[in-house]
Amino acid sequence: MSSWRVTVRTGPKVERMQAATLEEALDALEFHTRAAATAERRRTVDLRVRRYEPGDQVAVRAELRGPGRVRAGFDVRGDGSVEAWTGRVRRARVEPQDGDSPYEALRDALAQSTSVEP
Q1: Which residues contact 5 (CB under 8 A, 6 or more apart)?
Q2: Contact at 8 Å (CB) between 20 and 4?
Q3: Distance (Å, rounded) from C-alpha 17 to C-alpha 90?
Q4: Are 74 and 29 spatial neighbours (Cβ–Cβ below 8 Å)?
Q5: How far is CA 118 from CA 21, 105, 115, in A?
Q6: 37 phi/psi in degrees, rounded to 5
Q7: What's the number of domains the chain is made of?
Q8: pLDDT tens for each residue of 3-15
Q9: Tens digits of per-residue pLDDT, 24-48?
Q10: Reported confidence tier of residue 58, pLDDT bands at 50, 70, 90
Q11: Of 18, 19, 8, 26, which Cα lies nearest the Cα of 111?
């Protein structure tokens, strides 16, 4: 049986979990990301050379790793918005289609790119 690893990073705090199936891993990601999206808010960071608005900052990153080098996850921005992504070295944003949430968009993208269960 393949195992899926779930990692949630909130600043310096890292939480790791295991999930037996892709569906369980995605449920865990969604649970942690939804909680962070309502709780995490950042202020604007104003440096001398650049200004980082809350929407430019990643407050929480939740990712999963699985068989076949699958890597995907969610970024919760400092303004509470959520973006889904896939990829190992370069992250590609997963755009929601037809009114889908980022959670549904990632589920659809992974269902198309992986064989979930034998």
Answers
A1: 16, 17, 18, 19, 25, 64, 65, 66
A2: yes
A3: 23
A4: yes
A5: 11, 23, 7
A6: -65, -30
A7: 1
A8: 899 999 998 999 9
A9: 999 999 999 988 887 767 788 888 8
A10: confident
A11: 26
Domain span including residue 35:
4-113
What element of type H or E holds 29?
helix 22-39
**Tokens describing residue 111:** 């269902």
pLDDT, tens digit, 9 for 90 and up, residues 104-115 = 999 998 887 755
Structure tokens at 20: 């037996």
CB 72 within 8 A of CB 110: yes
pLDDT tens, position by position, 81-95: 999 999 988 889 999
Question: Does a structural domain hold residue 118?
Answer: no
